[in-house]
Amino acid sequence: MNDSVYGIDLGTTYSAIARISDLGAAEVVPNFEGDSTTPSVVYFEGPGSVIVGAEAKRTALSDPDSACLLVKRHMGTEYPQEFRGETYSPEAISAIILKELVNAANNTTGAVIDKVVITVPAYFGVQERESTRQAGVIAGLDVVGIVTEPVAAALSIGARSDQAETIMVYDLGGGTFDTTIMETREGAVEVIAVDGNRKLGGADWDDALVDLIIGKFVAAADLGDEDPRYDEEFMLDLRLEAEDAKKSLSRRESVTLRLSFDGTKAMVEVTREEFEAATRHLLAQTIEISRRTVELGTTKRPQLSIDRVLLVGGSSRMPAVKAALKNELGWEAQDTEFDLAVAKGAAIYGQAAVDEVLRTGDEAAPVDVAADAPGRPFLPGGSASLTVKNALSRSVGIKFARDENDAEGYISFFAHSNDAIPAVPEPITALTLSEGQTSVELGLYEQAGERESEALADNRFLKDAVLALPKPMPRQSPIEIAIRISGEGLVTVTTTDPASGASVDLEASVSVLTEEQVEQETAKVSTLLSRS
């Protein structure tokens, strides 16, 4: 190997880190406590001191205001949080988790590795992906790639032979849900269709279970006018117990919890049947998204046939998931290493990248590997190279106006969700709107909802740029717009005035944080003392 790299599954509730062993196999590296996964929880112990992982999760019980959970749900958004008098962005808090994962892995292996590949949900857009990359930068890491969780899972568990097949990855994590259809063969993965909900995950099942438990407790304890829902410490304790109860209900028909509030105690029993009834609406959303993904895939591959369905993500363990996939869609879903497959696949992707045998179709991709190059044991089918062809998770477009009186404008999409990437869409010829126009403003937007819509309110603003024209231009003068989309979904738009040749580039590698803010967050994180 030319170098070593870690693959990191940066999860909403739990994270994991993996590498390629000396024997050429992907392996998860345990943390300081010897566990394969680390809770994605940060507890701010005091000025300049944080705890990450299981101890942070336990400590948060007594001081919930100083703990941060589920930060992944805020990636790509402006969501500052204050702890111990200091404000932290979601990227900075994620960086603390990433830094701890790498430090623990280096301690365990005795290595000094700073190169990482970080996974993201397939349905993450441009901002969320760039925010994830920035989190790695803030942690002081060399982020050699961002790969979607389903692709990573396929590399780990779904593409192990030279036999071509079509697989569906059903990925129900702690905070996000994705479905991805891929064609896999020896040394290659091609994404056909992607869909999902970035705010649907196991945490929602936990919330429903909490509501079920507390309803039973209030009825059994006869609390009168007192409502324990407003007691933060009680509720945080209950949430942790509910998470354990959910796991138990995947193995047992019922669980019993002993709860106490303000001196009043009661035993509460919850059955699997009750839990499944309370969460049926959540599961139905995943089935609808799965069905929709197949419809999307069929538009691209009319003869599409799913050979295997793989369950990924810890919440996919719930028996109701497999039963619903069977009853509603006729699929016999297969279990996987629910919590570990994504990190292992990220390590495979990362090692292929640093060994320069990864092809994504980008111009920057390495040259072809020699025909007689030896196979690599960590790659699917023991192939000599890895080819990954991705798909765009959300439609991307440019803001236009219908005429000079159209103050609001509309979005014209030049690339659509599930389009194969990398791609070079057809160039666009736009026209100036007013007589004597001296500049052209270009606004780049990304689909925000589940469906494409030309209304500005239904899209997320990414970035804008202004092309200054060398002289006042007549009305309806042509402006040329060229577009490139990389294999990781980075969009570059070049706007050119044909008359003068003047041009401006607009890259959608944007996040909430500016470069200056990244430097500021890096300085904050670098001075923190961290422990597990």
From TrEMBL:
Q: What is this protein called?
A: Molecular chaperone DnaK
Superkingdom per UniProt = Bacteria
Which UniProt key words apply to this protein? ATP-binding, Chaperone, Nucleotide-binding, Phosphoprotein, Stress response
Q: Which residues form the signal peptide?
A: none
Q: Which family does it belong to?
A: Belongs to the heat shock protein 70 family.
Give a yes or no for keyword Cell cycle in this entry. no
Q: Which organism is it from?
A: Microbacterium testaceum (Aureobacterium testaceum)
| Any one GO molecular-function label of the UniProt entry | ATP-dependent protein folding chaperone
